[in-house]
Amino acid sequence: MTTTSASIDSEQHRRESWLGSARITPVRPAIAGEYGTWVVDYTVGIAGIDDGGSLRLAFRTVSDWPAAQFTDPAAENHVSARASGDRVTLTPTFGLHGVRPWSRTVTFRVGDGALAAGERIAVTLGDTSGGGPGMRAQTFPETRFRIKVQADPFGTGVFEDVDTLGFPIVGGPAVTLVLTAPSDLVEGETGWLQIRAIDRWGNPDPAFDGSVRLSRDVPDGVPRTYTFHPDEHGVHRFDDVRFPSGIERPLRVAACLDDGPVSLSNPIRVHASRPEHRVYWGDLHGQTEETVGTGSIDEYFAYARDIAAVDVAAHSGNDFQLTNEVYARLRDAVERFHDDGRFVTLHGYEWSGNTPAGGDHNVYYRDGGPIRRSSHALIDDTSDASTDCYPIDRLYAANAGRTDVLLTPHVGGRRANLDFHDPDLEPAIEIASQWGRFEWFAREALERQLQVAFIAGSDDHSGRPGWSAPTLAHHGVRGGLTAFLADDLSRGAIWDALGSRRCYGTSGPRMLVDISVSGHPMGSAPVLAELPDIAVHVVGTAPIDTIELRRGLDTVYRHDARPRPVAGDPWRVRVAWRGARNRDRSRALDWSGELLVRHGQILDARNHAIDNPLEGIVAWNAGSATWRSHTCGDWDGIILDLDGDDDTRLEVRTPAVSCAVTLGEIAGNPRAWEGRGLEQQLVIERLAHAHGPMETGFAWRDSSPEAGVNPYWIWVTQSDGELGWSSPVYVTYEPELSETDPTSDRA
Q1: Can you give the pTM of this predicted structure?
Q2: Domains of the chain
Q3: What's the pLDDT tens digit per position in 271-290?
């Protein structure tokens, strides 16, 4: 049945007459993450609101609009409500009481009387009358941030929609720059350079009109000073530019705002001849307002292409919310945005079964295909429920023999269950996203002897695929990226790279990571009769701290690229921590704590690898420092400059780990303490004042490989706490072959 505008208007009129109406002021754009005050004015409809009935404001599940508080008028996020005439009481509650994706609710229960038609309730979000600063807005932009107004007129517990109110949320003033360029070019080719001016939450500044100064390896066709026009909304891309050639080192363009910090681009390699494969960057994981996220499908792909500047993207909405109509619109958008050589899109969705039945898996199609859901949990039309596949082994069976379908298990709200695995359909697993960093997931795959690549994505719900800053909801860290080693930027080549395990993941930076074993590349599975020779090369986006070479679960070689402290250097100490509470949804681990200094003093203190602008150092003085921090497998920490000697004592107290150490005990080597939870670790170490290299590598021969399969892979840590993980080279070591067939040591 076709829904006409007349029928929509009639339904709206019926609701307004029966349930009442609502409006919000102001409706002007709000600045992401800034404080404000908004008033929702509700007029009661014909139904009235009985004693025991309620008015509710519902917010999206993934919004980081803060929790309301009703008891401290002088504190932030204070919410108040008043009914006309004050004849009734309004009892407030805040919680996850709504229906996904509108689960975050502020509810006011009417008591001591009833409200009649025409009476009003005014809800003040961010009431400042008691001295509070107001309510902090959502930290990421949205074309129309929405609040659902719902009523339960009769106190039955059933809430009906009154209206959906909204206003725009936009990025704030720029504080730094992000520079992005292709990772690989060939001499004579033209390339591009994008400059993005972002606020403290990682959002482009939509009104930015400042000038930026460029230096270092500035390509021809790019001015040394560029002034943004407000119509560019904080993002400018220079096309058809030529980077310097004949330089053996990777290039890096530098730029800064007036009096601001210098930002460096990702490393750019300009090859004398065409390489076998180039590195292309992608994010295959995210959702929009059609499921649990925010923003439209078109806004999602436009952000990935034009703002995040990734080469590859896919949309992976929860299947139990994707109606057939929305799935058709998604497939249409994938094809409209796809452009070989510029921007590759893949078809897909997220199979979202519970962990005991398989857990979260993204399903990708090379050329499009049907949606086979885990369930129709939030879909009213169940006419095609017979096509559901649950548990996931039914999905494997439905796709058996197909070469145009790939699945990637991942850790989201629901973690994938590796009791289920199909090696023909699952070439890779996702080990980093905004949910956290999941080395344990990689280790579990290796324990089970699965041969998979390690990739990363965002699982973004904020409309920012490809470059998503953490939100203050359940996405506590920056989104990751996958590097595809592909012949060219085409759907077929990207598909081949993923299917061949020729890819790797990072926590977000576009670092260049390479590992080979006896000449065999990342993702391959050679059979060797000779001792494996491992070659590693890494080009970082910040100085490189360490590269750990793993053989399966064991670290067999550790390359420390950091300079050693020089005798006489003042003390500089890093206290860093990582880990998670558990493997499941509530994994954020509280590290908020303090450090005390005995027989010495702090000269300076700064944050290390803090993702969230509201976390990090709260206060410090000569004798102590306090901080707020939560980790989800990522690194957080602080760096201290100290006046002290070998007897100076540092005492650290956190909910996860507490410890004490003297400077003399960390003069030569770091000290580490393990927590009781998942990969929980606190490390205290002395740092040099000199910066380490941004490019390094090593060669190493394994003199004692195990008979059978040896997965060789590397884990890279940068000085800024960012991480990179290669996919393994799965070497089968069979030394007896050399005695019978000397040519058999090459796959």
Answers
A1: 0.95
A2: 5-169 (2.60.40), 176-271 (2.60.40.10), 279-508 (3.20.20.140), 511-563+700-747 (2.60.40.10), 571-686 (2.60.40)
A3: 999 999 999 999 999 999 99
